[in-house]
Amino acid sequence: MADRRFWNEQVETRSEDEIAALRMQKIRRQLAYCHQRSPYYREKFHGAGATPQDVRTWEDFRRLPIFLTPEEYKAQQERSASEDGHPYGRILCAPLADVVGVSSTSGTTGRPTLTPFTRRDIATTDEVLARAFWRMGIRPGDTVLHAFGLSVWVLGIPAVRALEAMGARPIAVGAEGGTERLLMFARITRPSALLCTPSYAEYLIERAPAAGIEVGELGIRRIFCAGEPGAGLPAVRDKIERAWGAKVYDFAGGPWGIASISCDHAEYQGMHLLSEDCCVHYDFVDPQTRQPIEVKDGTIGAAVLTAFDWDAGPPVKFLLNDLMQIHLAPCPCGLPGKRRRILGRIDDMLIVRGINVYPAAVRNLVNEFLPRVTGEMRIVLAEPPPRAAAPLHIRLEHAAGIGEGALEDLGREIGTRIRDRLRFTAQLEFVRPGTLERSAHKGRLIEKGYRDA
Ligand SMILES: [Zn+2]
Predict the structure, then answer these.
(1) Checking CA distances to 146, which of 35, 126, 162, 324 falls within 20 to 30 Å?
(2) CATH numbers and ranges of domains, the chain
(3) Ligand 1 centroid – CA 105 distance (Å)
(4) Which residues does residue 195 pair with via DSSP β-bridges, in sequence order?
């Protein structure tokens, strides 16, 4: 059993036709369920002049002008807390008595967002997380050190529960346990896998020697990273893999049956979708007009999430603030599944002569020129975003030992690829390696060339 390639082979290897047929069947059932059970969704349908019965095809579904934004998601929870006697939101479709699990965002920056689970929702979460754990090589009987915040959303307690459900042996120290305790538990229990944020994996590299050990001596061979970009950035991934002597996997998911994980390919290929039977990951819209955009290999758009195997508080057309890219072509690793990359937040978008430009997409493109560049770059703005002047000023580090002539060629190649793929013109300014400040905040790609108002 342990040498199987998949946790759930029958589901994970479904053909595109099977996925599409199943998806429409489930979407129609879920829309009817939400309409029937939630006053919030009934109002939404009513406001759009639509009923669930109007949605017969995938195109109908994509055109359905109903959106749940992160602000609305919060607001409907506040409203249910004051009017309905529970804080789980007006999108709650299951009877309150059936809500047997709750996870939440951290609540450190304001009112936490709560996610209720029924027993079936817990089973769905166990199932899709098991698929991800299996892909990265975790097997029943493996000891797994858990170092995400235990109270934090789906990778806290729900991930611990999912490891137990699949037969693995989680050691749930959590990020709250602190570094010393985490290292002590690692020494005593000898885990073969670790779950934590990429920045915590990096931090432990520096901190372990003070506790008299190097992270590479702990015997951890697989690291499951999530919660922030990092594991998908070549420089960060290399650093963690070398120091720990482990393979790093990048995961993105959440409640509602969302799950995707990167593969073993030497170059980062995005994250394979693992749960097209539970939710829609790539119903893309234009972030400004909210109109559906055609989804092709490599398409970038605002991700709209709909769960269709979820009882408690299921999202319908949840317009996330994530900018996503989808890859439909087969992955060179040989495993099935479309892949997605999370490119950043939609709030970061720039508009250059009417073209939407995403700083993270520019960084990904520049990274394709490693090792001739270091990967460090900044977009220098002369005025406050989102509007930016053309050509867009990009300052980037070339690698050590690149001569004048080679630099000119490199600049031409990068400029051409930016124009072809991202459809804007760039003014590239090369600087020496090490010139740009290394920031702890990895997402910082913009340099303000203007004063704040
Ligand atoms: Zn792959």
Answers:
(1) 324
(2) 1-345 (3.40.50.12780), 351-448 (3.30.300.30)
(3) 30
(4) 146, 224
